[in-house]
Amino acid sequence: MLYKKIKHIAIVGTGVIGSSWATLFLEKGLRVTATDIAAGAEQKLRNQIFQNAPNLSQELLTFEESLEEAVKNVQFVQENGSEQTDLKQELFRKLDSCTPPDVLLVSSSSGIIPSLLQTGTSYPERILLGHPFNPPHLIPLVEVCGGEHTSDEAVERTIEFYRSVGKKPIRLKKEIKGHVANRLQAALRQEAFYLVQQGVASAEDIDMAITEGPGLRWALPGPFVNLHLGGGSGGARHFLNHLGPAIQSWIKDLVRVTMNKDLIVMLSDEVGKMVQKKNLTA
Amino acid sequence: MLYKKIKHIAIVGTGVIGSSWATLFLEKGLRVTATDIAAGAEQKLRNQIFQNAPNLSQELLTFEESLEEAVKNVQFVQENGSEQTDLKQELFRKLDSCTPPDVLLVSSSSGIIPSLLQTGTSYPERILLGHPFNPPHLIPLVEVCGGEHTSDEAVERTIEFYRSVGKKPIRLKKEIKGHVANRLQAALRQEAFYLVQQGVASAEDIDMAITEGPGLRWALPGPFVNLHLGGGSGGARHFLNHLGPAIQSWIKDLVRVTMNKDLIVMLSDEVGKMVQKKNLTA
After folding, report:
1. A19, A45 contact by CB (below 8 A)
2. Interface contact A223-B206, CB threshold 8 A
3. Which residues contact B243 (CB under 8 A, 6 or more apart)?
4. Best residue in A224, A243, A279 to probe B by mutation, most B CBs within 10 Å?
5. Is the pLDDT of residue B214 over 80?
6. Residue B273: its pLDDT value, please?
7. What residue ranges do the domains of chain B occupy?
8. Environment class of A279 (CB within 10 Å of its CB; exposed 0-12, middle 13-18, buried 19+)
């Protein structure tokens, strides 16, 4: 399959994520056609794009009530519908049936693996995942992952396209619950929540343990480059051989947390205290 | 106990951490006396401080072979000895017996809780933990934690002192294995290692999943302020009520990793590939 040059994109579902994608694509000079089943969606979308980028021309943006109309002349669909598996599957079957097979169908889903979106479609090879980190017009990361039937070409073309609009795509070689970034974030959050739950330190101090410590390193070289730099001339191997037992002992002590009502109330109160103290408003 | 104004510090143990502490204290205009049992320690220390800060005068630095001499006129001891519990306990009993009770005895230990360092001492109330994130003259975080017998006053005085030299101290209200920052880092690393082990993504892409995604947020507001900001006008409570089930589902899927030889070799190789590709040297 030779995918065409991407000049016109359909945004299916124009909530927070869809509006942000639309903002990004318009900023890059691409034509965007949006669609959403909600009442008043076009006005909401235009308002949200204006909030995101007040000086951005919306001339290249059109809105269609009908899905079929919206995807008529596009080369790329960025789907941002409801996160219910059955609804999304139905949506992808529709998209598959009303677009030629050289249109890439890409889902923003954070919770559904792309193989599930390929069931019952005629051209599953162009169906894949392009999961952004919110909001996509500001945060560069996007996670690209094919399903069981996605072609390598479709994955590569999608990565290339995202790069061309300034995104930082990563490639998932396997489908996994939560993809990569949300899993890493969940791992960190779980421990942060546990430490508050156990009364080890305040939320404010735990934030500072990140922002004034390892966070200073994560935002620049990332955890793995840090393994390399931390090992001196011996690199990551030296670092891991030397500190492996210590890391193991800390890992062993990590505890699974349950996000029940009590914990949510406790965390909310703790953050509330900090927010008041720091005079933060949302 | 009225602790005296801190003008003169003893650095006990002058390896990487001790040298970095010495650099910081000298930079702040404080008098430093260092001691270490290793042969040639003074010259190594002076060389390391020169590497850390080539333009820093070392006039306020003295070195003593004997521990008793080194701590004679100081108000604060920053201990950076070997991480063996029995050796450190012996060292703290010695420090306790050869300093008046108004000298703060603070350990840089990453692995030993402060209560263990108080056994067999006469004035345990001034013995506590001041665990830096390496290197302390560059990374602001320091974790302050009292043991069973530490006085609140000693903890507060230590926090105040660290603040006065530009550190960002956090207060641990309970002793816990790995303290706070290393636990949070271990949680993130465990998941990063797991994703490489499972072949989900390359080390390079996992680094990017942090640096181009959540890392951009962690380095500035920290995970808990982000919960607040993420919830809009409803704050952290709204965020957690809304996304709690998703976070729970990701947490449930996190897997304990064992830092065995195979994993260390695999991770080292993977980082090695990235380092070559990126042309990084240690």
Report:
1. yes
2. yes
3. B230
4. A224
5. yes
6. 81
7. 8-172, 181-278
8. exposed
Asked if A270 has any chain B CB less than 8 Å from its own CB, the reply is: yes
**Looking up tokens 């070195």, which residue turns up?**
B63
With an 8 Å Cβ cutoff, are A254 and B180 in contact? Answer: no
CATH of the structural domain B181-278, one choice from 3.10.350.10, 1.10.1040.10, 3.90.1150.10, 2.60.40.420: 1.10.1040.10
Minimum Cα–Cα distance from A192: chain B residue: B184
B231 touches chain A (CB under 8 A): yes
- DSSP-derived 3-state class of residue B55: coil
CA distances to A252, B201, B267 from A183, in Å: 18, 13, 19
**Nearest beta carbon to residue A254 from set B186, B271, B282:** B186
Q: Which of B170, B174, B209 sits opposite A205 (nearest CB)?
A: B170
Q: How confident is the model at residue B219 (pLDDT cuts 50, 70, 90)?
A: low
Q: What is this structure's pTM?
A: 0.87
Between A261-278 and B223-230, two packed helices, what is the crossing angle to 10 degrees? 100
ipTM of the complex, rounded to two decimals: 0.87
Contacting residues of A for B225, CB less than 8 Å apart: 207, 271, 274-275, 278, 280
Q: What is the CATH number of domain B8-172?
A: 3.40.50.720
CA B197 from centre of chain: 28
Average pLDDT, chain B: 91
Domains A8-172 and A181-278 alike in fold: no
Whether A69 shows a pLDDT value over 90: the answer reads yes
Residues B169-196 have pLDDT tens digits of 999 999 998 899 989 988 888 898 899 8
CA–CA separation, A178 and A176 (whole Å): 6
Inter-chain contact B247–A256, Cβ cutoff 8 Å? no
Residue B73 Cα, gap to closest chain A Cα (Å): 32
For the segment A172-201, the average pLDDT, to the nearest whole number, is 90
Over residues B35-84, the pLDDT tens digits come to: 999 999 999 999 999 999 999 999 999 999 999 999 999 999 999 999 99
Tell me if B268 and A214 make a contact (CB, 8 A cut-off): no
